[in-house]
């Protein structure tokens, strides 16, 4: 399910509004806006502290999503049109690299340019194929935060994706995943492989943004199994 067939998606992020152009006629899935990127962005908007002084002890996600108290390096896999990555930047995750395969880059760069008045700068981008270790090394891991939304849809790419996540995320870092079942075969393999590498926490649906809590879409937090600190 695509979010909508409309050529332009508007995403409100706090006081800013992103305008994301998509091309549903393209042969590449990355040129469409998919629901998980919006669900993940709006979940983060709901819980991310506004500043270091607004960290709420009753907010169980405040430490996880505190992008202000310390600088955190981030990377997004399969950025596509850029909805999630741009939203995370607006929410304070300012050291972020947006990545995808080369055929999707024109759509991503178009949307970054389109939203430059809102973003205030050109965000960093990098071509990254999940099985290309040279490209992974070139972005200089590890990262404190790895973002991925709607990236599990072909069984053949699952191993490369899990390998890239493992190679990119720091031992004490997190993977923030927006997920929707696209292929039963890819789904089964993905969770089997992730279970070997990560401690996985599913965000309760009631914690998602009320307007972006689609029944078939979930948010997960992954941490490496060799990390003893598995609490928010």
SSE map:
Blueprint: E1 8-13, E2 16-21, H1 35-47, E3 73-77, H2 83-90, E4 95-100, H3 105-114, H4 116-119, E5 124-127, H5 133-138, E6 143-149, H6 155-168, E7 169-180, H7 184-197, E8 198-202, E9 217-224
Parallel strand pairs: 3-4, 3-6, 4-5, 6-7
Antiparallel strand pairs: 1-2, 7-9, 8-9
Task: Summarize the structure in words.
With 232 residues, the chain is of the alpha/beta class. 30% of the residues lie in helices and 25% in strands. It contains 7 helices and 9 strands; from the N terminus they run E-E-H-E-H-E-H-H-E-H-E-H-E-H-E-E. The chain has helices at residues 35-47, 83-90, 105-114, 116-119, 133-138, 155-168, 184-197; strands at residues 8-13, 16-21, 73-77, 95-100, 124-127, 143-149, 169-180, 198-202, 217-224.
Order of helices and strands: EEHEHEHHEHEHEHEE
Provide the residue-averaged pLDDT: 91
- Low-pLDDT runs of 5+ residues are 227-232
What is the 3D shape? Answer: globular
SS elements, strand count: 9
Largest sheet: 7 strands, mixed
Helix content: 25-40%
**Beta content:** 25-35%
Distance between the termini: 31 Å
Calculate Rg over CA atoms: 16 Å
| Number of helical regions | 7
**Structural class label:** alpha/beta
Order of adjacent strands in the largest pleated sheet? 5-4-3-6-7-9-8
List keywords for this structure.
232 residues, alpha/beta, seven-stranded mixed sheet, two-stranded antiparallel sheet, 7 helices, 9 strands, globular
Short description:
This protein is α/β, with parallel strands linked by helices. It has seven helices and nine strands, in the order ββαβαβααβαβαβαββ.
